[in-house]
Amino acid sequence: MLNALNVLAVDKGNISGKVVEEVGGLSIPSAIVSVYLDTSEQAISTSATDENGFFIIKNLKAGNYKIKISYVGYAALIVNGIVITEKDFDKNLGSLKLSSEQNALQEVTITVKKPAIEFGADGVTFNVGSSLLAEGSTANDILKNVPMVQVDIDGNATIAGKKSTRIFIDGKPSDYMSSNIADLLNVLPSDAIDKIEVLTNPPAKYSGDGEGIINIVLKKGFKIGFNGNAGISAGLQGNVNTNANASYKAKTYSLNASGSYRYNINKGESHNYRENFFPDTTFYYDQFGNYKNKNNGGNYRAGLDWDITPKQQLRLSANYNNNLSDNYSVNELHYLGEDLLESRLRNQLNTGNGKSRNFVINADYNLQTDTSGGKLSVGLTFNTNKSYDERAYNTTYMPVTSSPQTLQKNNNNNGNEGINFNLDYDKPVFKKRDRVELGLAFNFRKNDNDQMVQNYDFSTLQYLLNSKLTNQFYYNENIFAGYASYNYRNNGWGIRTGLRTEITDVKFDLSNGGNYDLKPYWSLFPNISVNKFFRKRYNFGASYSIRVNRPRENNLNPQINNVDTLNISYGNPNLLPSYTHQIDISFGAFGQQWSFTPRLSYSTSQGVIERYRTVTLIPGTNNARSESTFDNIGTNNSLAFMLIGNYRPTDKISTNGNFSVIQNKYTSNLNSSLNRDGLSFRANFGFSMQLPFKTAVESNLNYANNANAQGRSKGNITSNLSARKTFLNNKLNLRLSINDVLGNRNNTFYSEGENFRSNNFSTNNTQNFILSLNYRFTKVARNNIPPPPKK
């Protein structure tokens, strides 16, 4: 009988406690509490604190455990050494204090894998270190597996259902740091990233730009002592990625540095079929192409975190990245008449090379102004980047005409400079129950795009300047902003309301004439979100905000790109800002082994900025030219429904998935062909399993099918599989990954207008087998984690 009672007690081990703020001791509801076996990399149970900050994890067997407590805006806390035995199976840890992330330098280093995905009313957080697929990769690779995020074939990331998304790094806009964000993300190594936040309703302290923000948070906290890692990965496609980082942390300061190098080969094929129909004639273009691009580049970072005094912290960081490219492509265009018989053939050989370099330096100073928790933060960011792109085009025609061959060179020099300044103050009020935040910001940005086009004169045997296409585009932008927000939290309720105001002053002009000095305009961005946690396992959230999509240099620049003379593109200097009203509603349910979060989002946008395409007949010919530009095409009403969840059937298996369906309805006075409805779909499923002998596997499957104002990007499927084995007490990791297990990625685009229909099919060499090796070294002082309080 005694043995039976002991077994019963062992199977009902409990770990309980209360989560509070370090400053003020206010309870924290909805904090995530994850329980791990002492030797496991997978959480065996995840729960959340109730409206008073309490939690209890039940039904635990005898063993050694550790828990991790995390909450958005606070540094995660680890408690080790929790032992459940037959005689001591009820562990009350008492009050566990979380500190602000700004004080993360003083926290004990987190040594346990975080849950891969954390949910909040205003978005989701993807913890990079918890994914095998993230190891040895780049920011661009990781974003493809983040819930609610979709990445197009050019490497541009957006939040599903949002027309404009901005990429931030450490809370600061990355588009101020690079002329090509995709290039920046393609060389930023995953080992430098702590987590990725998908913010569907950003707080008032963030810029009002974009319907949502993807914030890439870089690692800041380090273990006491000297730590680092070095790794290399290589794939059968010829890609190579090497990286190394090291850090040293003393009592009051830490130093860190990292470097990475990436070499990549992209190649693929395309087929475009376009029907051109006019009142007196109909003809067709059937175009085939293939390309091969080689890219190599590096990313180098260095940082200093210094606790000047217990109330003052200074953080300095610098980042430099460079990229080199070598491009080759061939395409042939078949001209088909109404009878579908070929009348002409155009062959074009394109070669080119490019280079870019970006440098960013950040300085952040934090001061605790009073004993009640008031904080003053000052931040300054300076960035400069330059890119150079040289292209050569050799075009021949069959049958031979009066101009059987043309040669053209395009040289583009592009430079960006920017300064961001922010001053923020936040203070707890009403016995530290609520919090007030105030701030000022100034953003300056300058862009200089110099385009030179030369055509070869066969009579003089030299290249001559094309004055019609050669010009220089200057762009200057100043944004002055101020904001105030108030956060209320009590009895399971959380209410955040804020107001941001921005004054935007933009000027741009072209060297060959045309000045555009826009009148400065003033914008207001209200923001409110309400959260309620109840019955210890449910969370309801609702939010409303106004956002803006400002046209910037890539949209405004009227320089003409005539690489393909029958498909030209240019910007539109007459674009106006587009404002979006958006409402999000979420409901979360949490169990010890699962979580489920449906989300409903509605938005309405006036003057939506999208790429717009027209096809016109070239006078005196039977040729039609496609012109692609941007325009305020009209109004878009969007309704999105998303399902996000995870399930852990055992302590060694974890699954997660998300599904979204988005209804877009366009109404346009610009063109009746833009009055259309469209459904977009996106789905993702992930699976991970911990196996014996320190081995783990992970897989991921993605599907996307998106509609836009003039057509649809038809469904494509991507898949990944990764397996890892650790050696030498987890210091050495060997990983094998297979990208796109089901085959190379295929992309199909359909678009139509008043007098054309177009189908484009392309495939890329995305299927790849990658082998990675990573070694971690450390010399760490013993962590001083206080033991659980005695009962």
UniProtKB/TrEMBL annotation:
Pfam families: CarboxypepD_reg, OMP_b-brl_3. InterPro entries: Beta-barrel_TonB_sf, CarboxyPept-like_regulatory, OMP_b-brl_3, Plug_dom_sf. This is TonB-dependent receptor. Keywords: Cell outer membrane, Membrane, Receptor. Residues 368-775 form the Outer membrane protein beta-barrel domain. The lineage of its organism: Bacteria, Pseudomonadati, Bacteroidota, Sphingobacteriia, Sphingobacteriales. It is found in: Cell outer membrane. Transmembrane segments: none annotated. It comes from the Bacteria.
